[in-house]
Design a protein that fits this description.
The protein is mainly alpha-helical and 163 residues long. The chain has one domain. Helix content is 80%, strand content 0%. The protein has 5 helices and no strands. The protein has helices at residues 2-16, 19-36, 45-60, 69-83, 96-162. Helix 1 crosses helix 4 (69-83), helix 2 (19-36) runs antiparallel to helix 3 and helix 4 (69-83) crosses helix 5. It is globular. It starts with a helix and ends with a helix.
Length: 163
């Protein structure tokens, strides 16, 4: 199995260097996940895949770069394996073809991806709070600008009435 996955890791290292290719792989993972997420054996794999997809998206966007190269390559290799219809057990074999995808994803989670995903989720949660504060601040500033503009408009109307 390890020998078989070596090709995926090699390809993953190339993809990590190309943000366009990384985005394309992430999009493929989103599509795959939408099709398979309701299968009964998916369990927590869905949540983990969503986390990896989010992390890789933020990585490609330059928002989150705190990922060691080997972990990043493992994530991309896992995604590559999952979205590939031809792997150890081809996906065209119902259910069994998807079980190996889930198994390989579980293996990459055990290779350090799980710990990295926890760090990312903490960062995301902290950033979410900060982002919400920044959004509120921008909203408040826009409202203040609108109020000032509206007040100025009313004063001009009052001045016209007084004349």
């Amino acid at each position: 199995m390890k020998k078989y996955l070596t090709g995926y890791v090699k390809k993953a290292k190339e993809i990590v260097k190309d943000e366009g290719a990384l985005r394309k792989i992430v999009q493929g993972a989103r599509v795959w996940l939408l099709r398979q997420k309701d299968l009964p054996f998916m369990g927590e794999t869905v949540e983990d895949m969503v986390g990896v997809i989010d992390l890789l998206t933020d990585y490609a966007d330059g928002k989150y770069r705190r990922v060691p190269g080997r972990i990043l390559a493992a994530m991309v290799a896992g995604i590559l394996y999952v979205v590939s219809p031809v792997n150890l057990i081809p996906d065209w074999i119902p259910l069994v073809g998807w079980l190996d995808d889930v198994a390989v994803f579980a293996i990459i989670m055990d290779l350090g991806v799980s710990a990295e995903l926890k760090k990312y989720r903490v960062w995301k949660q902290e950033r979410g709070g900060k982002q919400a504060d920044a959004d509120r601040h921008r909203s408040t500033e826009k409202q203040q600008e609108k109020d000032i503009w509206e007040h100025g408009r009313r004063e001009k109307q009052d001045d016209r009435h007084d004349q």
